[in-house]
Automatic annotation (TrEMBL):
Protein name per its UniProtKB record: Uncharacterized protein
Origin organism lineage: Eukaryota, Metazoa, Ecdysozoa, Nematoda, Chromadorea
InterPro entries: WD40/YVTN_repeat-like_dom_sf (IPR015943)
Biological source species: Anisakis simplex
Top-level taxon in the UniProt lineage: Eukaryota
């Protein structure tokens, strides 16, 4: 993954719990991404735990279409305060 800090691009490493993976199919077979899009229109905070005490502001949603025909949705969350929110809200 590439990221930019000020004017410098860097290679970022994500730990295993933070990366996007498509799950196994119902038959237990590997699945693979065949399509991807990023939605930056969310206006809903992201809850990080079951009791709702950890929330982050709205963030981009990465949607991945897999080889078994399932659309998977992942929140692209950053915990770094210097990262700006890139979501753009649609006007009605």
């Amino acid at each position: 993954m590439l990221g930019k800090v000020e004017n410098t691009w860097k290679c970022w490493q994500l730990d295993d719990t933070s990366r996007i993976e498509t799950p196994l199919s119902r038959k237990g077979e590997e699945t693979f991404p065949v399509g991807l899009c990023i939605d930056t229109s969310s206006q809903v905070n992201v809850t990080l735990n079951d009791d709702g005490t950890m929330e982050r502001p709205p963030c981009p949603t990465v949607m991945v279409f897999s080889t078994d025909g399932v659309l998977h949705s992942f929140s692209a969350i950053s915990f770094k305060p210097e990262h700006k929110n890139i979501n753009r809200y649609l006007s009605s």
